[in-house]
Specification:
Layout (H helix, E strand, L loop, with lengths): L1 H15 L2 E7 L5 H12 L4 E7 L1 H9 L6 E3 L4 H8 L8 E6 L1 E4 L21 E4 L5 H12 L3 H4 L3 E4 L2 H8 L5 E5 L17 E3 L8 E7 L7 H10 L2 H9 L6
Parallel strand pairs: 1-2, 1-3, 6-7, 6-8
Antiparallel strand pairs: 3-10, 4-10, 5-8, 5-9
């Protein structure tokens, strides 16, 4: 009887415990880990699987049937298209606004702002691919609005995602345009504002409104719905703010 009771208990735990599959824009790579930990405080039996990538590539995967439940994009346009195509079951809602920053392992005069990219010693400038990553689109917009694009276009090195742009900026290029949120992780504490990085003037680019949607695959997943609601909660907003996002 004891073995039967334990088997029934084990089965009931399996039935209660759920899984959430998240498609998450690369700029969220650090913040999503903290968000997961916060969510599991009240949902300890829920398994959360995260696939990181550029919003464009994740959207392509979703359209071809990737079994994601929730999509946290780096823009509003791509999740809106998924909603219009009935792949997402909720209209996109802004969960945070991303901010661009310039990052280098070298010492430049960051008081110049974005104009620092004209420094004669800068030969390679990293940015996310604007064809698939909203942060890349914002970077090109900022360079053009600052009348710098023509003078530095030959120096641009395109990364597959904004997280790869961070890798490039800290390894193989002189300077890079990155998501400010990436600079708040524990592994980036060695880089100091004003010395290694600086914000890009937000007046130079359209605010990077990042949208979340519930996908059709997660329609009957109670845990996925709970996570979606959590992402829009005050607890989540505090975490986003801690990573340099704007939530107002």
């Amino acid at each position: 009887m004891f073995k039967i009771a334990m088997a029934i208990l084990s089965l009931s735990v399996c039935l209660v415990a759920g899984e959430i599959r998240l498609a998450v824009a690369a700029n969220m790579s650090d913040a999503i880990e903290v968000l997961k930990k916060e969510f599991t405080k009240s949902n300890p039996d829920t398994k959360i699987s995260v696939i990181l990538g550029s919003s464009g590539k994740l959207t392509a995967q979703i359209k071809t049937g990737a079994p994601y439940d929730v999509f946290l994009s780096a823009d509003m346009m791509l999740p809106q298209k998924l909603y219009e195509e009935n792949i997402a079951i909720t209209a996109p809602v802004v969960y945070a606004k991303g901010v661009l920053a310039l990052l280098s392992t070298k010492t430049f005069d960051f008081s110049k702002g974005i104009a620092v990219v004209q420094d004669a010693s800068i030969l390679k400038i990293a940015l996310a691919n604007p064809k698939t990553a909203p942060y890349g689109t914002a970077t090109l917009e900022a360079l053009k609005n600052a009348n710098l694009y023509d003078s530095v276009s030959s120096k641009l090195v395109y990364a597959e995602s904004i997280s790869q742009a961070v890798q490039y900026a800290t390894t193989v290029v002189d300077i890079g345009f990155v998501a400010k949120s990436s600079l708040y992780s524990n592994k980036m504490t060695q880089y100091k504002k004003g010395v290694h990085w600086e914000d890009v003037d937000t007046k130079l680019y359209t605010p990077i409104s990042q949208g979340v949607v519930m996908l059709k695959n997660g329609e009957k997943n109670a845990e996925a719905k709970a996570f979606y609601e959590f992402i829009l909660s005050q607890n989540a907003k505090k975490i986003f703010n801690d990573f340099g996002y704007i939530t107002q």
